[in-house]
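Recall the central idea of this unit: under ordinary conditions, the amino acid sequence of a chain determines the structure it adopts. In this exercise we apply that idea directly, starting from the sequence alone.
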Amino acid sequence: MSYPNAAHAKRGLHDGLITKVQYDEIMRALRAKRRPPQNTALGGDIYIHGNGAQSDWTWGCVALENEDIRELFDVVRVGMTVTIEP
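Accordingly, the structure predicted from this sequence is:
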């Protein structure tokens, strides 16, 4: 998943959460279709993973049951849009 995106970076720069250098680095990565930096105050490393929907939620991640992650793996391709809703 692509986080942070351009809107997140702009808001982070405006709010003083990231520096101009970090903003520029994020924007360069997005333009090049590369993974943006994950080590700024905006956070990162958002994943969908197995190991149990009931007990393995982490900050920024979505945990599914292993059977569900296997099914998702079979139908989702790199570059597909993923929307996470409550």
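The radius of gyration is 15 Å.
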